[in-house]
Structure formats: structure tokens, C-alpha cells
Design goal:
The protein is an alpha+beta fold and 224 residues long. Helix content is 35%, strand content 28%. It has 6 helices and 10 strands. Helix 2 links the parallel strand 6 and strand 7.
Length: 224
């Protein structure tokens, strides 16, 4: 089930106070409308009824898709990461009928709303986020070699009409660029770099650091 509560927030422009719903957990299967609001960032925004100003808020949220057997915890504070990892460890050991946690569940921990939305997009399309992160790492490497004056801040996969189309690239100087999504590269990484015996469902944090460690571990094995 979903869990939410209302808090009073103050408009940063006019100071008017109003109620704002905070979602501790969101069950996308039972509350598809709330999922749609989350994907559009509406769940994290409050429009002042007095002056119309929109304030943005970020809070910890557990996203749960029962049909896809997916849980994603949003946590922007490094101080709480260990707590959520412990929570996932506990959930992995539970057999509670309400949660129906089993080995087929994928558990992820992300540190931003953009990363949360991207993960949902990725899993909704049946893609492997581990492969996507490796593709991003290769894009970063290519940019560093071809345009060393450009430093990449973030890369996000864009999906349009249920089809992955390109990677949007944000540079540290605020400029944006993009490269097309290459299905052949995706398939090659899946074949050559992803262990078919490891489904990665309990790789809680799959990000650039994870991809870098994956490459490092593969290099070590080759050098053995």
C-alpha cells in the first residue's frame, strides 16, 4: 500500500502557508495516478494557492511496483543510505504476505528525483539498468578523450513513446548535449559484460561508481 501524510509548507515567495502531501511510500500498482504525478515531478512540487509560485521539495520516498516486482528508495542524504541498505537487507529476509518479498524482487537505492524517474523508465521498458550505467560510463570516457575541455556532470537515458532514444548529457558548465541510444552497444555489453548467472536484483546501488567497479573487477580477472 501507499503511505502519505500532509505537512504545512510556507511559500518561499509570499509566505502563505498551505498543506502539502508527503509520500513516504508509493505503490505504483495501486496508485497509478500518483506514479504519473511522480514521473512529472508534480509529487515534489507545491503551487501556492495565493500567488501561484511553485516551490520544489525533495523527501525520502519508497517506490513500489508490485507487477514489475521492483522497489526503489529515494534518499538524497548520505547519512541515511546505510539505514536504507539495512532496510533492504531486512526486506530480503522477510516472507511477509503483505510485501511478498522474494528473490525475484529488484531493489534499488537512488539519490535524486531524476535518478528515480530514470530508473522507473528503465525498468518499465524491461531494460537492465546495469547495462545503461555501463553505457553512460563509456560515453563519459569518449567525451573525456574527444573533448577533454568538457566535464560531464550527469547523463540520463531519454525514452519517448516507450522507446529509448538518446542519452541526454549535462556538462558541469550547464551546457547540454546528447548521443543516440545504440541498441547494438546495449546488446554487446549484455553479452560480453553481464554475468548471465547474476541478475543483479540485490545490487542496491547501480550508478556510475558501480559501473566503474564493474570495469575494474573485469580488468582484474583478465590480469589473473
Amino acid at each position: 500500500m501507499s503511505m502519505e501524510h500532509e505537512e504545512v509548507v510556507k511559500c518561499s515567495k509570499c509566505g502563505h502557508e498551505d498543506g502539502f502531501v508527503i509520500w513516504q511510500s508509493l505503490n505504483a500498482t495501486l496508485n497509478p495516478e500518483a506514479k504519473a504525478d511522480m514521473m512529472e515531478s508534480c509529487l515534489f512540487e507545491h503551487k501556492c494557492p495565493k500567488c501561484g509560485h511553485v516551490d520544489s521539495y525533495t523527501y525520502d520516498l519508497l517506490y513500489h511496483d508490485m507487477e514489475s516486482m521492483l522497489m526503489i528508495q529515494l534518499c538524497e542524504s548520505e547519512d541515511r543510505v546505510a539505514d536504507y541498505i539495512a532496510m533492504f537487507d531486512d526486506l530480503s529476509r522477510k516472507t511477509d504476505d503483505l510485501i511478498k518479498m522474494d528473490d525475484d524482487y529488484t531493489l534499488r537505492l537512488v539519490n535524486s528525483r531524476n535518478n528515480l524517474r530514470e530508473k522507473v523508465y528503465i525498468f518499465d521498458q524491461g531494460l537492465d539498468d546495469r547495462i545503461i550505467e555501463l553505457m553512460k560510463l563509456f560515453i563519459r570516457f569518449d567525451i573525456s578523450q574527444e573533448n577533454p575541455e568538457h566535464e560531464v556532470d550527469e547523463i540520463f537515458l531519454e525514452i519517448r513513446d516507450d522507446v529509448p532514444t538518446r542519452f541526454a548529457i549535462c556538462l558541469t558548465d550547464g551546457q547540454w548535449g546528447s548521443v543516440p541510444f545504440n541498441q547494438e552497444v546495449y546488446d554487446r555489453i549484455k553479452e560480453e559484460m553481464i554475468d548471465p548467472e547474476d541478475n543483479g536484483k540485490r545490487d542496491y546501488i547501480v550508478n556510475m561508481q558501480w559501473a566503474g567497479e564493474c570495469i575494474h573487477n573485469m580488468a582484474e580477472k583478465l590480469n589473473e
